[in-house]
């Protein structure tokens, strides 16, 4: 009886007990309410397959889709002073940083990498909105400048993916100083005759919009991205009027000449490759960079049984 109760019954119970399901298997789209399986969502680069709503995507996931084969090398970023102002609100700034680092697995709100995109060598930087709202602090400024310096060193284009709530209030004036610092870095790119492409994603606001996010040679945005300095709610509360529908969204800015393109995330790589190769005076990218069919030597079957290798015709030799 002990054998049945101690061994058999627990085994039977374990077979029929309810299995715990991980919480991150399904994601609900905030726009249409569709439940999306995590693999399906990841395969579509965090874009809803039902309504095309562009959700937040981490820099690593973006780079995995952007660089050829998902292969890239991180660019080292100089360290910064932690908590220079000894700032504290509801939580100490170092504690807030540690929580963000634990949640995202990143050092700060920007990742810089180098690699090839469509066989076109580039240096790219991307902000992580899930890290304290992608806010711009000293580390982000250093990361941007490190990316620019690396692009100049390698003579490569620099591509920036912005996603930020603005300057980081916990660093005060030191965060605002990153605006002129990054602007000077962009001037260095221009002096080196290297393209600077900006891809604005949802949301790009505040000091980031007022600096490096709007200084690109080509300005591209993802669909329906909020791009502004002050947000619509702040403006409405200030002027006490209702703003037009779609105000400060990517399509509105495109219609009013603030952007060059609005491009779906899944088509962004091809768009960037085309633009960068055009700016660099390179021929359009083709699959595996194979020669055109008309330039391939014509092969004919050999007439000598002793030689089994194909030969080139006289017309091709001429």
What's the helix and strand layout?
Elements (H helix, E strand, L loop, with lengths): L1 H15 L9 E3 L6 E3 H6 L15 H8 L6 E2 L18 H12 L5 E8 L2 E8 L10 H17 L3 E7 L7 H5 L1 H14 L4 E9 L1 H4 L8 E4 L10 H8 L10 H6 L5 E2 L5 H12 L19 E2 L10 E2 L1 H4 L1
Parallel strand pairs: 5-6, 6-7, 7-8, 8-9
Antiparallel strand pairs: 1-2, 3-4, 4-5, 10-11
Helix pairs in contact: 5-7
Description:
It is a single chain. The chain has 318 residues and is of the alpha/beta class. It has one domain (57-283): 2-enoyl-CoA Hydratase, Chain A, domain 1 (Alpha-Beta Complex). Helices cover 35% and strands 16% of the residues. It contains twelve helices and eleven strands. It has helices spanning 2-16, 38-43, 59-66, 93-104, 138-154, 172-176, 178-191, 206-209, 232-239, 250-255, 268-279, 314-317, and strands spanning 26-28, 35-37, 73-74, 110-117, 120-127, 158-164, 196-204, 218-221, 261-262, 299-300, 311-312. The chain has a seven-stranded mixed β-sheet, with helices on both faces. β1 (26-28) and β2 (35-37) form a beta hairpin. α5 runs parallel beside α7 (178-191). The longest helix has 17 residues, at 138-154. The chain is globular and about 85 Å long.
Which segments are poorly predicted (pLDDT under 50) over 5 or more consecutive residues?
288-318
Question: Helical proportion?
Answer: 25-40%
Sheet with most strands: strand arrangement: 3-4-5-6-7-8-9
Largest sheet: 7 strands, mixed
Q: What characteristic shape results from the CA principal axes?
A: globular
Task: Name the CATH class.
Answer: Alpha Beta
- What Rg do the Cα atoms give? 26 Å
**Could you say how many structural domains there are in total?**
1
Query: How would you classify the helix and strand content by structural class?
Result: alpha/beta
The ordered H/E elements are: HEEHHEHEEHEHHEHEHHEHEEH
Distance between the termini: 95 Å
Number of strands: 11
Family: Belongs to the AccD/PCCB family.
Subcellular location: Cytoplasm
Pfam family, one: Zn_ribbon_ACC
Pathway: Lipid metabolism; malonyl-CoA biosynthesis; malonyl-CoA from acetyl-CoA: step 1/1
């Amino acid at each position: 009886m002990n054998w049945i109760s101690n061994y058999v019954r627990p085994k039977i119970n374990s077979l029929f007990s309810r299995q715990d399901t991980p919480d991150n298997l399904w994601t609900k789209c905030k726009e249409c309410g569709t439940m999306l399986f995590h693999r399906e969502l990841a395969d579509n680069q965090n874009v809803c397959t039902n309504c095309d709503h562009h959700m937040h995507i981490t820099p690593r996931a973006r780079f995995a889709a952007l660089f050829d084969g998902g292969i890239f090398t991180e660019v080292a970023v100089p360290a910064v002073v932690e908590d220079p102002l000894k700032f504290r609100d509801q939580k100490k700034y170092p504690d807030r940083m540690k929580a963000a680092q634990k949640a995202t697995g990143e050092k700060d709100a920007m990742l810089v990498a180098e690699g090839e995109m469509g066989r076109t060598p580039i240096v790219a930087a991307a902000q992580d909105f899930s890290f304290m709202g992608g806010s711009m602090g000293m580390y982000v400024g250093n990361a941007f400048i490190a990316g620019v310096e690396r692009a100049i060193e390698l003579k490569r284009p620099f591509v920036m993916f912005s996603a930020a709530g603005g300057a980081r209030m916990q660093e005060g004036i030191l965060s605002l100083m990153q605006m002129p610092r990054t602007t000077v870095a962009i001037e260095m790119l221009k002096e080196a005759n290297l393209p600077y492409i900006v891809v604005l994603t949802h949301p790009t606001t505040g000091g980031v919009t007022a600096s490096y996010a709007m200084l690109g040679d080509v300005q591209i945005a993802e669909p329906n991205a909020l791009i502004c300095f002050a947000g619509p709610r702040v403006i409405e509360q200030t002027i006490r009027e209702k703003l037009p529908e779609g105000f400060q969204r990517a399509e509105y800015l495109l219609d009013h000449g603030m952007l060059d393109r609005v491009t779906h995330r899944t088509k962004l790589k091809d768009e960037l490759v085309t633009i960068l190769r055009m700016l660099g005076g390179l021929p359009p990218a083709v699959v595996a960079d194979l020669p055109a069919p008309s330039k391939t030597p014509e092969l004919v079957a050999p007439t000598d049984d002793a030689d089994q290798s194909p030969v080139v015709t006289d017309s091709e030799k001429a």
